[in-house]
Design brief:
This protein has no helices and 44 strands. The protein is mostly beta strands.
Length: 423
């Protein structure tokens, strides 16, 4: 292992301010602001990281905090391990590029924390490029730090990204290309009123996004050209564009997500280009959308451009349009949709919109103000437990009970024989 030299700060006018930040529940994403927090410490000693890491290296709490003053490269075949409780402060122009392996091993009690050296600044990025081994982040707090990955197998678990600063250019919190990513139990949180761009972007490769929280981000989750993936059990609030956006994808399961108040679409399925790429990704096919709650969006679910989707057991409530099928890109054609066992209620403008190029079949579904053509459809109030509290379980008296295909319940949340169901 390489030993790092400890640098003492000689000048009394130079201080490194560190904020003691606690990892928090992702439903209460507030954190202290340096300069206004009584829990501020002044350190006169730190450890500077070398620009080139060419031997296996372990960063430990004893020599923390560490400072990233200039770009750092972890060379191919080399492993950088960061242990629990380590704090790392990054200059805004400094990136950490990993060509070897990076293992960040925080714990719930002692997470690894990345922050800017100067509180008013943003940070650089952690960049994974053609790595020679698997990389993983566990129990990490990243303040103003973004991640980029290309040709990398990357696992992110119990990790929280917080943005509190304006970006001057197009940005995204996590961006992967030609990589396989597993993103679980984590948070992407924008605490500003500024455009921050996308949350999690995956281009090509495999994506598994589970049990995570996305707040106040442009497109919370965007997959482009991904063949095989799962988006499951996430909570998405106040997206400034789409909650979930698929472009040119195949064999994607979108299940059990809670999507609230997206400015554009809760779930969008179509085609497009990958930013600067000139490749047309084509239509999205074999997309299964099931057991999701989509509330308060401009459009609940949109299927476009010859994309094919199966919409099963969803609950769409209080959207301007519940489901919209249309041609968005000239020459591609409309959307192709099969809807089953789904609740549509309190739509403002329309329940299902279908242009002349699209095809929709709907069965065993309920709408509160329209009887859809097709087998087993119902027009009635759905009778939720408490929709004003976002509790969309069915009451015992609901007409959705056992009225679905094969005698199942209609909607995302089935009836539960409980006296009190929590929100």
């Amino acid at each position: 292992m390489r030993d790092l030299k400890d640098f003492n700060i000689i000048s009394l006018n130079i201080f490194i301010y560190l904020t003691l930040i606690n990892c928090i529940n992702c439903n209460d994403c507030k954190y202290s602001v340096p300069g206004f927090n009584k829990n501020m410490s002044v350190f006169k000693q730190y450890t500077a990281l070398p620009c080139i890491i060419d031997n296996d290296l372990v960063l430990n709490k004893k020599k923390s905090p560490y400072i990233v003053e200039y770009d750092i490269v972890v060379k191919a075949g080399i492993s950088l391990t960061i242990q629990q409780g380590v704090e790392i402060y990054m200059k805004d122009s400094a990136n950490i590029t990993v060509n070897g392996e990076l293992h960040i091993e925080g714990t719930k009690q002692e997470p690894v924390c990345f922050s800017p050296v100067i509180d008013t600044n943003i940070c650089g990025s952690i960049i994974f490029n053609n790595t020679t081994g698997n990389c993983n982040l566990s129990n990490v707090l990243l303040k103003e730090v973004s991640l980029r990955a290309n040709y990398t197998d990357l696992s992110i678990n119990n990790t929280r990204f917080f943005y509190n600063k304006k970006r001057n250019a197009y940005w995204s919190m996590v961006f992967t290309k030609n990589s396989n990513i597993i993103f679980q139990n984590s948070t992407l949180y924008n605490n500003t009123n500024y455009f921050v761009a996308e949350g999690l972007i995956v281009i090509n490769g495999y994506a598994k996004v589970e049990n995570s929280f996305f707040y106040n981000i442009f497109d919370a989750i965007e997959l482009i050209g991904v063949k095989n993936g799962v988006i499951q059990g996430n909570k998405i609030e106040k997206s400034r564009d789409d909650g979930i956006d698929l472009n040119g994808c195949n064999n994607i399961l979108i299940t059990g997500n809670l999507i609230f108040n997206s400015i554009d679409k809760g779930i969008s399925v179509g085609t497009g280009k990958g930013f600067s790429d000139t490749v047309e990704w084509g239509s999205s096919t074999d997309i299964t959308i099931e057991k999701n709650i989509v509330v308060g969006c401009n459009t609940g679910i949109a299927i476009k451009d010859s994309s094919i989707a199966y919409i099963n057991n969803n609950t769409l409530f209080d959207n301007d349009k519940a489901i919209d099928c249309y041609e968005n890109t000239s020459g591609y054609g409309g959307g192709i949709v099969r809807i089953n066992n789904t609740i549509i209620a309190k739509s403002h403008t329309s329940n299902i919109t279908v242009d002349k190029l699209s095809s929709v079949t709907i069965t065993y579904s309920l709408c509160d103000n329209e009887l859809f053509p097709g087998k087993g459809n119902i027009m009635a109030a759905p009778e939720f437990v408490s929709p004003e509290d976002n509790n969309f379980y069915l009451l015992s008296s609901s007409p959705c009970r056992k009225a679905g295909d094969n005698g199942t319940d209609i909607g995302a949340f089935v009836y539960k024989n409980l006296k009190n169901i929590n929100k």
